[in-house]
Amino acid sequence: MGAPENDPRLNPGSLSRRPHNPKDAPGATRDISGEAEDTVGDLPSKQKDYNQELAKPDPSSIRKPSFSAAQSIGISDQTGLHIILPSSASRATSSGSLRDLKNCVIDLSIPTAQGAPFPGLMLKNVDRCLIVTGRVSGPVHINDVSNSTLVVIARQVRIHNCKNVDIYLHCASHPIIEDCSGMRFAPLPSCYLMEGDESTENQWDQVDDFKWLKTTPSPNWTTLSEAQRLDDEVWTKVVPGKPGCSVEQILNKVGIPPK
């Protein structure tokens, strides 16, 4: 409800606008310096549960949670959803996470293409998913991911305990894998490139395998040939989805086999 017209807070000359002396307030205490200390703390902020919102039945095959009031992106415990973050999620300024996801298509690229990159991102316990992470100014940690396709733009990428994953990558440093198998790397699709990317060296194929110390090439990763890579039409027309297009159809189009 709005304040009534006679509310003194609306009158610049009212007593409520005058400087407040904390020592006159009932319940105020003093610290050892003699300054008054307010005993009333800030009201607790209530964080919206976006995962609960995503779990609600929806006739649309595509979910677009706003995350407009969230400081970080956190999506977890979801199955069979197509999630696209709109530009309002660009307000997230803390590292985010994608956890415990199965048979999902998730695109985080729009907020970071129109605003600042995410500072960091964690992917953990992901199976049979297509994930476009958007731009990340710091590290991306990828743990326990299998049978999936990822699009990653980051300063650092650390990959642990993953298998059968295709990664389309733009990375300013050597990607590092450990305890992985069946990893395939490719450069970032051209439709995700932005002005300034060419000035940063992309070391997508300079992979360091911490569990392979021999001089011969590691058997745990390889690169995708141009013929094996998905073309731009898949990224621009199939991945965004359209009415009537299921998540399974999109996953099949990007080469993720049915379970």
TrEMBL record:
**Which residue ranges are recorded for the region named Disordered?**
1-68
Q: Name one Pfam family in it.
A: TBCC
Q: Where is the C-CAP/cofactor C-like domain?
A: 59-212
Q: What processes in GO biological process is this protein linked to? A: post-chaperonin tubulin folding pathway; tubulin complex assembly
* Keywords of the record: Chaperone
Q: Which residues form a coiled coil?
A: none
Stored PROSITE patterns: C_CAP_COFACTOR_C (PS51329)
At the top level, the lineage of the source is Eukaryota
- GO CC terms of this entry: cytoplasm
Record SMART domains? CARP
Please give the family membership noted in the entry. Belongs to the TBCC family.
Q: What is the designated name of this protein?
A: C-CAP/cofactor C-like domain-containing protein
Give the organism the record lists. Answer: Hypocrea atroviridis (strain ATCC 20476 / IMI 206040)
Organism taxonomic ancestry? Eukaryota, Fungi, Dikarya, Ascomycota, Pezizomycotina
